[in-house]
Amino acid sequence: MKILMVCLGNICRSPMAEGILRDKINKQGLDLFVDSAGTAAYHIGEAPDRRMIHTAAHKGINIGDLKARQFCVSDFDDFDRIYAMDQSNLDNMKMLARNDEDLDKLDLLLNCKDSFSKKSVPDPYYGGGDGFVAVFNLLEEAIDYIINNKV
Ligand code: 4NP
């Protein structure tokens, strides 16, 4: 099972989601592959935002090695499930879908669990430090749920 996490810039939310899942794959020996991408091209080749790297490091997860890339149509061929961090990322990928099979791979990450009242992971890029920890916790809850119920 190959999972792609997608946000706008691929420097805050989706690399954190990739890092959390990668850590769980390694620690739990899960038969999964994870990658991440952004729908926008602004940050291609860059490492994650230093505030996100710092938040991850505090939780014992290294995401400093990740490099931003842009989502592309061939990702529909390469991945089984593609999780968007928010509605706008989802809409952007829907516009690139070629057929129903591509569309079926797409979902909002927070759609995985009914108890998430908000379905979009807030973008911490323009906010303060607390936003990054809140995003980490939200992502970890969703990823734990997916591991235990969806794969
Ligand atoms: P991300 O956050 O989508 O979680 O990586 C953002 C990063 C950069 C920008 C917007 C959101 N930006 O406009 O540069």
Q: Which word captures the global form?
A: globular
Bound molecules: 4-nitrophenyl phosphate
Q: Compute the CA-based radius of gyration.
A: 14 Å
Averaged pLDDT, please? 96
Strand order of the largest sheet: 2-1-3-4
Percent of sequence in beta strands: 5-15%
Provide the CATH topology. Answer: Rossmann fold
Order of helices and strands: EHEHHEHHEH
- For this structure, what is the CATH class? Alpha Beta
Q: Can you count the helices?
A: 6
Uncertain runs:
none
Count of DSSP strands: 4
Characterize the main sheet.
Answer: 4 strands, parallel
CATH architecture level-2 label: 3-Layer(aba) Sandwich
Description:
With 151 residues, the protein is α/β, with parallel strands linked by helices. It has a single domain (2-149), classed as Response regulator (Rossmann fold, 3-Layer(aba) Sandwich), CATH 3.40.50. It contains 6 helices and 4 strands; from the N terminus they run E-H-E-H-H-E-H-H-E-H. It has a 4-stranded parallel β-sheet, sandwiched between helices. Helix 1 (13-28) links the parallel strand 1 (2-7) and strand 2 (33-38). Helix 2 (50-58) packs across helix 6 (129-149).
Protein traits:
single chain, 151 residues, alpha/beta, Rossmann fold, 4-stranded parallel sheet, 6 helices, binds 4-nitrophenyl phosphate
Write the layout of secondary structure elements.
Blueprint: E1 2-7, H1 13-28, E2 33-38, H2 50-58, H3 75-78, E3 81-84, H4 87-96, H5 100-105, E4 106-108, H6 129-149
Parallel strand pairs: 1-2, 1-3, 3-4
4-nitrophenyl phosphate binds at residues 7-13, 38, 42, 123, 125.
